[in-house]
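User: My instructor asked us to take a sequence, write out its structure as tokens, and then describe one feature of it. I'm not sure where to start. Here is the sequence I was given:
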Amino acid sequence: MPCPNVKECSCPSRSCVNHSKCCECVIKHKNTDSLPFCLFQDNGGDKSVKNYYKKLQERFGS
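Assistant: Let's start with the prediction itself. The structure tokens for your sequence are:
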């Protein structure tokens, strides 16, 4: 059952068991040291926290 608080899930992975279940999705990504698509859309296929910081540095400078 989708989360009642989600209006529209932006994740392109519709086959994921956690699609539209934000709490479950965040827990899964926390356990895998990665970020959900909705929080890190410009990931180039690498949703790791390390890549997230790299993208932030590129965007805002160091």
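For the description part of your assignment, you could build on this observation: The longest helix spans residues 49-60. Try explaining in your own words what that tells you about the chain.
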